[in-house]
Amino acid sequence: ISCTPMHHPIMPLLCDMRAALESMPYLKLPEQIFKFPQDASLQLEKGIDYFKSIFKDSPNGIWPSEGSLSNVVLDLMIEKNIKWTASDERLLSESLGDNFIPTEKFFPRKYSNKNGSIAVFFRDHFLSDRIGFVYSQWNPQDAANDFCQHLRNIRNEIIRVHGEEALNHAAVSVILDGENCWEFYKENGVPFLRALYSNLSQSNEFTTV
Fold first, then answer.
1. What is the pLDDT of residues 92-140, one digit of tens each?
2. Which long-range contacts (CB under 8 A, 24 or more apart) does 47-54 make?
3. Exposure of 34 in the CB half-sphere (CA atoms within 13 A)
4. Residue 95: helix, strand or coil by DSSP?
5. Which residues partner with 110 through β-bridges?
6. Which of 48, 58, 121, 206 to pair with 2, CA 20 to 30 A apart?
């Protein structure tokens, strides 16, 4: 179970508005630069404290608002003893540039500083959006079968590119977009989820984590 910063801020911009230039170097910024990492730290603390008040334990993971990350934000998460976070595959693609290959997104990266480290997972855009925007129009069992077939294709591609040993540390991250998709599904998605979980639990090819 993960949580988010309390009031859903875009954390890198809260820490330093100039972070926008890392992905959009030609962006015109205001003359007065907003830089308030103390508030970003407080947003994290409040989100974690709210989680503790409900679950009586600390979260290991943080989903950053809109999947937005920067080194400063990762440093704050390490400071709060967060063990993992996640973002979209595009962040990894743009970070690696010409060194990026499509299967890279299936391998979490470790970010480290002098205070510790944090694992970063990357959202599989295609599979996540199949659940978010496509499968609501499908027969539930057909949708679940289609999802698992795509997983098999991913598994085979990982083996082809990286070897079978790589399956031991590969992870396909399915993270839905912010919209609530379940209202568009039959019975709020219960038949689809039951079919999907049944497929996954009966398979010896996949492990859910």
1. 999 999 999 999 999 999 999 999 999 999 999 999 999 999 999 999 9
2. 47/3, 47/4, 47/5, 47/6, 48/3, 48/80, 50/3, 50/6, 51/1, 51/3
3. 12
4. helix
5. 119
6. 206
Top mean-pLDDT range of 18-22, 91-95, 191-195, 203-207: 191-195
Between strands 2-3 and 84-88, the pairing is unpaired
- What is the C-alpha to C-alpha distance for residues 125 and 133, in angstroms, rounded to an integer? 11
What is the pTM for the complete model shown?
Answer: 0.93
DSSP state of 6: T
What six digits make up the tokens of 129? Answer: 């959006």
Which residue pairs from 41-44 have beta carbons closer than 8 angstroms and sit at least 24 positions apart in sequence? 41/76, 41/79, 41/80, 42/6, 43/5, 43/6, 43/7, 43/9, 43/11, 43/14, 44/5, 44/6, 44/11, 44/76, 44/77, 44/80, 44/82
Count the helices and strands in the chain (H runs, E runs): 8, 5
